[in-house]
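Human: My hope is that you can spare some time for a protein that puzzles me. I am handing you a single protein, as its sequence and its fold in C-alpha cell form. Could you go through the record with me and say what the backbone is doing? Take your time, and here it is.
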Amino acid sequence: MTAPGFPLVRWGPFVRGVVDDGNPLLDLVGSARYIRNGALSGAGRLLVRPGTEVALTLMDDQGTPAEVTSVCAIIAFGDGALAVGHSTVTSKFYLYWLNDSLTDWYNLSKALQGTTSPLPVGVLWSGAGAPENVFIAEGLGVAYLAHGNAATNFKTRKFDSTAGPPATLTDFQADLRGSGLEDTYFRGVVSFQQHLWGWGYGSQAASDNDRPELLRFGQPFFAAMKQGDSFAVGHRVRSYRERVVAAIVAGSVLYVGTNYSLWPITGFGRNSWDKSRPVDDSYGFAGPFAGTAARNGWLYYWSHRGPLRVIGLNAPEPLFEGLPKATGRVVSDTKIVATFDADRDQVLFLYQDQTSGRVSRLAAFDTLKEIWLGPDGDIGLGVRSAALVQPTLAPAPAGPPTTASTTNIGSTVATANWVNGEAGPGTKTQVEYRQQGAGNWIVATQSVAAGQTSYQITGLQPATAYEWRARHTRNGQGSTYLGPVAGSQFLTTNGLAPPTAVALRFKHVGGGGPL
C-alpha cells in the first residue's frame, strides 16, 4: 500500500544505507535511512521498479515458508543488496541476498531464482522473540552483521560472497582477549577507511564482561582484529553513561557518540588513528540513528539538548536555538531518526508520535539556505526522496475461513470451497494440501483474493486420499486454519485407462474380390 500519488519507482540509488526499523514492533515504526524512491507494503514487503507493483515478500525457513513479520535492515552489497528479516513466529533473524533492482534474489551460489518470494540464504540468530536494530558493515564483498541487543548471546556474523561458490555465512571470530580466536560479540559495526570497526565488544564474552565504551578496529581491508587495536571513548571505564551509542562517518571523520560526548576519529590506519579529544563533552547522540551525514563532511545529529551540527574537529554548532517552538509535543529523543535528502539538501529529523503511533517529521533543516522548514505534520506512508517509509499495517485477520467442502473431484484435480471468515481489503487466503496421513503440507496458493471462496487444486494423483486446509493472511499475519475436517478430505477418481492393443481390421462384403 502506498500513499496517494506516491510513485512506485526503483529502490535506489543506494547511499550508504539501511532500513532501520520497518515494523511496528520496533521502537520507531517504519523508519528507513539513506533510501530514496522506495516504499514498504506491509510487514516484510518492498515495492520497487517504475510503473509496477513488484513486491519482494521475504519468507522464513519453515517447511511451508511464510512471510516474515519485520524488515530490520537493508544495505547495498556488491552489485546487489542484503536484507535482514525477523519472524515473531519462528523467533529467528534471516539474511537475504537481493539483486540490484530488488526484483529478484540470489541463492548462496549467486544464481537468480526468478521469483518475488526470497528465501533466506541463512539464519543469522535464533531464539530472538522480538525484532531489534541490526547494524551492517560492508567491505570488499564481505558483510559483517551485529545484533543491537547486548543483553542476549547474539554473535556477530560474517557473510562472505567472495568465498566459493557457494557464499558462506559464519560466526565472526577475532582474538580480542589475547587467548586465540573466539566468537565475537558487537552491539554495532561500521566501515571506516576500509577497516571494520565494532563497539560493545564483550557484551557476552566469557570473562571479559561488558566494555560499553570500547571500540575495536580491524587491520587494513577488513583483515583480522587484535587485542591491542582498540579505542576507549568517554572518561570512565565501563561507564554505561558513556557507552557508545552509534558511530557515523561524515567526510573523513568517524564520529563516535556516547550519550553525553562526541569523539572524532581521523586517520587511515592503526599507526595514524587519532582520537585526542572530544569535540562535544556535554551532549552526544540521543539514539542510535539520531545522526546523519550531509554534504561536504557535515554531521547533523540530535542530542539530549536538541539538534546540533559539526564538521571536522571543530566544536559543534547548536541548531536548537532556531528550531520553531511549535514542535511542542512530547517526543522521546532516543527514538529520533535523522536522514539527509540529497535531492533537496535537507536534513530531516523524524520521530514516532507517542499518541498516534505514526512516524512524523519533527522538522527539516535546509542546509543551503540554513533555515528550519517546519515542524511539519504526519508524513504518512511514503516520502519520495527523504528516507522515511511508513507502512500502514492492518491487524491480523479476525478469524479463519469456515464451512469447508470439496467439489469437482477428478483424477488429478479438486476444488476447495469455503466461507470467508473475513474478506476485508488486503486479506488473502492461503490453501495447502497433502495426502492424508502425510507429514508436510504443500502450498497450493498464497494469494486467493479477498472475496473469492474457492480454489482448484491441481497436480494430484488418481485414486489417492487427500486433505486440504486454508487460512486468511494479511501483512504477514495469519489466522488459524480451517481444516483438515471432513469437508476438506476427498478421494480422487480412478480416471479412464487408455485403450490398448489397437488394430485396424477390414471386412469385404459383396463381389469383386478382396480389396
User: Anything to note?
Assistant: The longest strand covers residues 465-474. The chain has two domains: 18-373, 402-491.
